[in-house]
Write a structure and sequence with these properties.
heterodimer; A: mainly alpha; two-stranded antiparallel sheet; B: mainly alpha; elongated; disordered N terminus
Chain lengths: 258, 98
Amino acid sequence: MAGCLGSLLGISGGIFLVPFLILALELPVRTAVAISLMTVIATSSVASSNEVSQRLLNLRLGMLLQLTSTVGVLTGGLTAMVISEQTVLRLFAIISVVSAIIIFSRLGRRNVTLDPDADPGRLGGRFFEQESGGVVTYRVRRVWLGLGVSFIAGNLASVLGIGGGIITVPVLNVWCGVPMRVAAATSAFLIGITAVAAIPAYYVSGDIVVYLSAAGVLGVLFGARVGFWVGSWSRAKWLKLLLGVTLLAVSAFLFARL
Amino acid sequence: MSKINDTNRFETIVSAVLRNGMSVATASLVLGLLFWMFGLFSVVSAGLLQVGLIIVVGMPTLRALLAFSRFLRAGEWSFVAITAGVFAMLVTSLVLAF
C-alpha cells in the first residue's frame, strides 16, 4: 500500500508506515524510523527504475534540491533537540491541510504549455505527454522555495523516517510550476539519496533490525509495482486528487493523535 | 539530435542498472528471509539479508554517480559542483555517524 502510493505520487509512504510500526507492532520509534528509511530508499529506486519516470525526472532540479535536503538530514539531529516531536508533527499536519486545499483549488490548472517555442529556462524542461497529445514545456519558478522545502523534507526524513515527498511534491507542483508527474518523478529521485544520508546514524546505533527491514523493503517493492500499473493509465488531475485526499487523511490522522 | 539520443541512452542505462540491482536485492532478501523463517543456515541467511540491504542503500548512490558522470560529460560545471556537494554531504553523514 505504502509502496503503491509512493510510486504513484513520488512520496515514500513512510508517513503511513512509521505510525503503523509504532502503534500496531509496538516497535521502538528509532527502529520504526530506520525500517521506514530503508523502505523509502527501495521505493525511490523502484519508482525511478522505469524509463518513463526517467524521462520525466528533472535531474538538474532534483540534484539542486538534493543539496539542501542532505543538509537538512545532517541538521536533523539539531532540529530534534530544539523543537519537540509533537511540534514537528503539528506543523506537519497543518502543512498537509494547506497543501491539500491548494491542490484541490487548482485541479483544473496545468503547469505546462503546448507552445513549442516556449523557453523552459535553465531548470525547466519538456516532455511528451499523452494526455495533451504532444511535447509540453514547463518553467521552474521560485527555486528558493523548492530549496527551502527540500531542506525541511531532509530534516523530517532524518527525524521521522519519512521521505518528505509529501511536502515536496505539493510545493513543487503548486508554487514552483513543476507539472505533477515531473514533481513525482523528481521527488522519487530525491527521497532515495535523502534517506541514504540519514541511514548511517541509525546503522551505527544498531537500530536497523535486518529481518524487519528486509520484510518492509519487500512489501514496498511489491506495492510499487502495483503503483506503476495504476500510474500508467491515470490522468494528472486524478493523481492530484489522490494526493489531496492522501494529504487530508494524513493530517486527520495526525490531529487525531495529537 | 545526437544530444537527444544520448539522453535516451543515459536513461536506458540508469533504469537498467536500477532494475537489475533491485532484482538482485529482492532475490537476496527473499531467500534470506525464507532461510531465517525456517531457521536454516543462519549465517547464510544473515549474509543474504545484509547483502540485499546494502544493495538497496547502494542503488541511489550509484544513480547519483551516473548523474555526476552525465553532468561531467555534458560540461555542465555548475551541476557537477552541485552533485559533488551532495556527495560531500553523504560522506559527512557517514563520518558524523562513526
